[in-house]
Amino acid sequence: MRRWLAWTIGVALVVSAWGVLQITPSQDDAEAPFPLAAAIDEATSARGFVVTVTDVRLASRAVAGGWSAEGTWLVVDLRAEATQDETGTILAHAELVIEGVAYRASERPASLLRGGLTPGIPREGSLAFELPGDVARDTATLELGISDDPRLDSLVTLDLDLGTLDAEDEVELLETGWTER
């Protein structure tokens, strides 16, 4: 074999190997959740549950029954129900992602976080996110799912522009309860 042909084949193999490395997904990409885009007042169906975000409010004080707290609060009102299992379906993943930083829904007020869902019987309530004041004007993505670990699972996502929300002095979380369709 001629020397130039051997070099050409060698370079082609190296370039091919580099190309394969570039298109091979990373471990994180291979385990990424399946995002399902949602809109306000639109039911979005994911694996095991259906959710409708009905309102998003921003306030400097959040109130839920006898509980209240000062700060920068984003309150998301929603309606959710299970679609498959009679028991064991809970809204376990509720995060607000702002510039790559994830803020979990607060567990302090009574909310739909970790609330059990049943097929055919929607529950409504709120989720409250306590945020640093300087991010309250950025864009964010709300993520909702029924697994603590959303890898390889469906995840309902809602893009929000927090800068368009009018900040209220006080916002009351919806009482968590069953609803009629």
Looking at this protein, list some descriptive labels.
single chain; 181 residues; mainly beta; Immunoglobulin-like; seven-stranded mixed sheet; five-stranded mixed sheet; 14% helix
Task: Summarize the structure in words.
The chain is mostly beta strands and 181 residues long. 14% of the residues lie in helices and 46% in strands. The protein has helices at residues 3-23, 27-30; strands at residues 34-37, 44-46, 49-64, 67-82, 89-90, 93-98, 101-104, 116-117, 123-131, 139-145, 154-161, 167-168, 171-172, 177-178. The strands form three sheets. Strands 2, 3, 4, 9, 12, 13 and 14 form a seven-stranded mixed sheet that branches. The radius of gyration is 22 Å and the shape is elongated. InterPro entries: Immunoprotect_excell_Ig-like (IPR029050). It comes from Microbacterium invictum.
Secondary structure: elements and pairs:
Layout: H1 3-23, H2 27-30, E1 34-37, E2 44-46, E3 49-64, E4 67-82, E5 89-90, E6 93-98, E7 101-104, E8 116-117, E9 123-131, E10 139-145, E11 154-161, E12 167-168, E13 171-172, E14 177-178
Parallel strand pairs: 1-11, 3-12, 3-13
Antiparallel strand pairs: 2-3, 3-4, 4-9, 5-8, 6-7, 6-10, 9-14, 10-11
Task: Using the alpha-carbon principal axes, give the shape.
Answer: elongated
Mean pLDDT: 90
Helix/strand/pairing category: mainly beta
How many H/I helical runs?
2
- Tell me the count of domains: 1
Radius of gyration: 22 Å
CATH-scheme architecture: Sandwich
Low-pLDDT ranges: none
How many strands in all? 14
Measured between the Cα atoms of the first and last residue, the distance is 76 Å
Portion in helices: 10-25%
The top-level CATH class is Mainly Beta
Helix/strand order, N-terminal first = HHEEEEEEEEEEEEEE
| Beta strand % | over 45%
> And the CATH topology?
Immunoglobulin-like
Reported for the largest beta sheet, the result is:
7 strands, mixed
